[in-house]
Amino acid sequence: xxxxxxxxxxxxxxxxxxxxxxxxxxxxxxxxxxxxxxxxxxxxxxxxxxxxxxxxxxxxxxxxxxxxxxxxxxxxxxxxxxxxxxxxxxxxxxxxxxxxxxxxxxxxxxxxxxxxxxxxxxxxxxxxxxxxxxxxxxxxxxxxxxxxxxxxxxxxxxxxxxxxxxxxxxxxxxxxxxxxxxxxxxxxxxxxxxxxxxxxxxxxxxxxxxxxxxxxxxxxxxxxxxxxxxxxxxxxxxxxxxxxxxxxxxxxxxxxxxxxxxxxxxxxxxxxxxxxxxxxxxxxxxxxxxxxxxxxxx
Length: 298
Prior knowledge:
Blueprint: H1 10-21, H2 28-35, H3 40-51, H4 65-68, H5 73-79, E1 81-86, E2 90-95, H6 101-111, E3 114-119, H7 122-133, H8 142-153, H9 170-185, E4 190-194, E5 202-208, E6 211-218, H10 223-233, E7 245-250, E8 260-267, E9 273-279
Parallel strand pairs: 2-3
Antiparallel strand pairs: 1-2, 4-5, 4-9, 5-6, 7-8, 8-9
Organism: Ramlibacter montanisoli
Pfam family, one: T2SSE
Keywords: ATP-binding, Nucleotide-binding
């Protein structure tokens, strides 16, 4: 395919194949990239156009909580695989090399689902796997909390706003704290929580550089409990759902970050509520190296 498109020469292809025969277990694409014959981006574009493999931008993808539970962190890190969406019999998975037979076979064997591969850059895969599955060093990640929350709430009816969420609701409390910490670490200015009707999960998005980017989706049976937890932190009335409320959260009393947040709740259709939180943390110190020096124009 790469030779036909004139992206590499037959000699470069033959040299890569010869290295495989000599015991190099990597794919031809990886060997060619290391040799400088072709870039990873060129290979990505060729796969999309020639093989019809869909490409996905993970930074803006709303991950399906059910898909995240389908594979283990070890399997995700081993094959650099990020599950995207799950149906009854199929699982869409983002891979750096969607043609890897070994990865596809092991994923299908482990999940008992038909795997539909998608293409994603290695850097985005690494970031998504670390965010949702952890870095393998014991640090808790939002995806692990989301998975545990789904396991704890499986089959349970939706918790109402009158069900106060205290420190005993350990998983949800840690999830809310982690959400706020991640927003601050990622440089977000606002956190938007959108409650959706029926059996749709609540959508959490961060505003970064003026653009809303997906973060997580919370199971629908926890949407009221999530709002209640934030109201408790902001010292708002958890029983009031028919009018807007505003308050503030001094996050230093709940977590490790000295963050202050302005909180606004807004009633929506169906007796639901949305929440917007503006992060008002103290300005961070900037190093001299990060300054941009401009020549005077006079």
